[in-house]
Amino acid sequence: MAGRKVRLFLTALLYFPFASDAEEHTVKPAIHPKYFDVEARCACGNTFKTRSTKPELHLEICNMCHPFFTGRQKLIDTEGRVERFTKRFGVQTTQIRKAQVTANKAAKATKAKKASKSASA
Q: What predicted TM-score, i.e. pTM, was given to this entire model?
C-alpha cells in the first residue's frame, strides 16, 4: 500500500506541473496548412461538402458510384483500357474459345496425318 502511494506521489510530481501550463501544449501557429471548406465533385456527378487542405477536390469515384457501396457491379473504364483490350484480342466468349480449341486440334491432326504419309512414302 505504501509503495502505491509513493508511485502516485511521484506521478503527481512528474505530470501536474505540465498540466498547469496549457499554452505550452497548443499547436504552433504558422507551420500548419490552411484548412478549407470545399465541395468535392465526383466524376459521376455527385457533390458533397467536406474539409480539406486543398481548395478544390475532384474525385474519380465516390460512395454513390463505388460497387462496394452500391451493391451492383459497374465497369469503370480508365483511359479506354477495355476498348484497347477488345480491339487487340477481340470479343472473346467461352463458345468462341471452345470452337478455336477444336479447330486447332483438327488442324494438328491433319498435319500429323500428312507428316505420317510423307514419312512412310
A: 0.36
